[in-house]
Design brief:
There is one protein chain. By secondary structure, the chain is an alpha/beta fold. 26% of the residues lie in helices and 22% in strands. It is globular and about 50 Å long. The protein starts with 18 loop residues before the first helix and ends with a strand. Homodimer. One of its GO terms (biological process) is D-ribose catabolic process.
């Protein structure tokens, strides 16, 4: 793809962003000790953690420049890990009907694992906190996480329950329907998380949660993050039960898709006005930012008191599987946010990562997704013409688009508009 981009460059590290910049209503955490955290012997992996230093002089060697650069605070994903049993079908079966699948295979997945591998594939230090069973599916997941560059020292193995799994019915057009069996994702958690788990959370740059593990665990994690000034993104995917108020009030960004937003609020979400009203209800519950994923129609970020920002999709050359697209989008947004990019840039980077994700089968991102490829795809939407740049959003439709409103978000160096 042609073009160059000064503001985002794969050869130039993005600036580190302190907690006070990301989440300015919390205090900044400063650690004086540089001691490595050691994993208890009960963990599957016994290697020491990398030092987690926030706002310190900790440095690592940049392989591109050969110079020492500050070590960024990590992305910490606390959530689910599944063995996804894929069956490829022409259509969904009707009630009482039995149909034959074209193929079937088992791949690593789960919203938490998907998001963690996305962070690792985007070359950002990523930790995963979760549970698997002592079985073949658990081994599959551990291999997939490590293969994606994720640190799994906090991945616990439980003997009494099997690894969580899901049946993914993948249709020929790339759309999917999913049935989840919780397994170790929902059972076997301690009543209180271990101190070393919470220490990782408190020293994160940003924390990602989903709703495929118990709400009680998410609440403990969100509270620990809030106490340390660490921003929390809650992906609304997973359980269809109401989100506890105690969890919502400790979340900085709620990220549902249209159907999840409708279910959580009990309101319709078929038009921009309806989505806006549903988001307003979320604001009343204490969530300041709501990032709504709209599938083929892109995404919209609503920040209380500000105009919404809309991001169209970046069209993929081919669409093979949309299973992990939402997870990839959310994780890529988190990576861009913790690296200090503007909200506009975060949205476009996330759209680029999701575009790469749907071009391969499987929910776990693979070698097709890396920071250089995402930046390169992201690059074609930016124009280098000085400090006052205009980013035109090119609409990509797959049928009627109910979101026809236009709005403008003023950010440093960028004036972004959508066509009416």
């Amino acid at each position: 793809m042609s073009g160059s981009m000064a503001s985002i460059s794969p050869s130039t590290p993005w600036p580190q962003r302190s907690h006070s910049n990301i989440n300015h209503h919390h205090s900044t955490l400063n650690l004086k000790s540089t001691t490595n955290f050691i994993v208890p012997s009960g963990r599957k992996n016994s290697k020491p953690f990398q030092s987690l230093i926030v706002n310190s002089a900790a440095e690592s060697l940049n392989r591109t420049t050969g110079k020492a650069t500050p070590t960024p605070p990590p992305l910490v994903v606390v959530g689910s890990a599944n063995a996804d049993i894929y069956v490829e079908i022409d259509r969904l079966p009707k009630e009482g009907e039995t149909i034959s699948a074209k193929t079937g295979q088992t791949l690593a997945g789960g919203k938490g694992a998907n998001q963690a591998v996305c962070g690792g594939m985007l070359s950002y230090p990523t930790y995963f906190v979760g549970q698997v069973g002592k079985d073949a599916h658990g081994k599959l997941i551990m291999e997939a996480l490590e293969g994606g560059g994720v640190l799994i020292d906090q991945l616990n193995t439980v003997a009494e329950v099997p690894t969580g799994h899901a049946v993914v019915m993948l249709q020929s057009d790339g759309q999917n329907s999913i049935i989840i069996v919780g397994g170790a994702n929902m059972c076997g958690w301690p009543q209180n998380l271990a101190n070393d788990d919470l220490e990782i959370v408190k020293n994160a740059g940003i924390v990602l949660l989903q709703r495929e593990i118990p709400d009680s665990i998410n609440i403990q994690v969100a509270k620990a993050a809030r106490s340390a000034g660490v921003p929390v993104i809650l992906d609304a995917g997973g359980m269809d039960s109401p989100i506890p108020d105690e969890l919502l009030k400790h979340v900085d960004i709620l990220s549902p898709n249209e159907s999840e937003l409708a279910r959580l609020t009990g309101m319709q979400t078929e038009s921009f006005k309806q989505i806006s009203l549903a988001v307003a209800k979320c604001h009343k519950l204490g969530v300041k930012e709501v990032l709504v994923k709209l599938g083929a129609r892109g995404s919209v970020l609503f920040t209380e008191g500000n105009e919404p920002i809309r991001q169209s999709i970046i069209e993929a050359e081919k669409v093979l599987d949309t299973t992990g697209a939402g997870d990839t989008f959310t994780a890529a947004y988190a990576v861009a946010l913790v690296e200090g990019k503007s909200k506009v840039e975060c949205l476009r980077f996330a759209a680029a990562a999701a575009s790469l994700c749907v071009q391969v089968k499987g929910a776990i991102p693979n070698s097709e997704l890396d920071k250089f490829s995402a930046l390169k795809l992201n690059d074609k939407s930016f124009m280098e013409d000085g400090s006052s740049r205009r980013l035109e959003l090119h609409e990509v439709h797959s049928g009627p688009n109910p979101i026809s409103n236009s709005f403008t978000e003023e950010v440093p160096d960028i004036n972004i508009q959508t066509a009416p």
